[in-house]
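Task 17 of the worksheet. Students: predict the tertiary structure of the chain below and write it out as structure tokens. Keep your answer in the requested format; marks are given for formatting as well as content.
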Amino acid sequence: MKIITPSNEKDRGCQLSLLFSVSITAIHDELEQNGIVCDKREPNVLRVAPVPLYNTFTDVKKFVDTLETVLGKY
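Model answer:
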């Protein structure tokens, strides 16, 4: 997995784009089954948007922990 969101804050919004070396369909589906709402861009980009007005630190931690668990299967 590689973060492809621009590192310069002036070149990005709040969305985080992650590039995977595998198809993200199964990863996306498992995240959704665990209550994680994200956007998939076939064939291998997953986008998440941790918006401060709507998401808590706990939400972000849940995403990271869940993604780590899911990726451990691949």
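Marker's comment: Strands lie at 2-3, 16-19, 39-41, 45-48. DSSP finds two helices and four strands in the chain.
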